[in-house]
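QA checklist item 7 of 12: single-chain prediction sanity check.
[x] sequence parsed
[x] length recorded as 301
[x] structure emitted
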Amino acid sequence: MDPTNIVPADAPPRPSRRWSARSGPLTWIALVCALAVLAVGLWDRRREPVSDRTVGEVTRVGVVDGDSIPDYQRAAAARLAALTAPATPGPGDYALVSFAAYLTPARLADTLGGTPVSAVVARVPLPGRQTEIVRIAAMRLPDDVLGGMAEVAARKEREAADYRARAAAPSASADAELRRVYDAGASVSAREAVAYRAGCACVYAAVVRDTPDALRALATRPDVRVVDAAPRVRRLDRTVFTPPLPEQRDVVRPPADTELDGPPAPGMGDSSEAAPTVAGSALSPGRSATGAGPPNPAPTS
């Protein structure tokens, strides 16, 4: 007997040659399966939507209370002059266009010509009263503006009726000051409704989008006061536009509210508040090219 083949009694059993031969393929199979699971996981992560990093960010374009109007005009002119076209052709940059006067929808269309429009900003310029500032989504002029004004008029009629009902309530009858507030609110809302029904000269700004050269040409047109280019704007629903009122010439301040007796009615806006969107665009389903029917509501900015 060969002494080299003698195995001590307490030695561990030797691995089977058959198992050693099978362990190699099993190891490779396990490795391939692990790599496949990893690849599937990476592919699923690639298909996940990228989170919007602009959530919570709001871009402001225009003026605020206390701003100098001449300084704003000079700064906007400098920004417009420095605006350059991108290397890749596109729809252009957004801009806030302020007008020198309140315009009717028809005159607005003549002033802007073929400039692509996204929205207009309007208020009824009642002497001595603060009135609500509204933003009307509009892509076709003047149809969308007229449709938006009709919607605002209907809302103002409801507000006037509500104010009258409140003024007639027992609580207001016993409080002369409260009744005066409700009467003033009813009067202002009713006058706003009449003005919007008639397609009033109420539009004093517009949000447009065009190329730098086209925006510079727009700045030279009659009735255009300021073209404030805003190339940083990417989403209108996260942008607040606050144009100066036509009557503001030196410093931005809320309009006087002195015509009617008593304080301004609750809910009346001032010149620096954000304008809510009250009407949708003209590209909603079911609208004809002639602008028949009111535009659909759009989200408030």
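[x] summary fact logged: Residues 59-279 form one domain.
[ ] second reviewer sign-off
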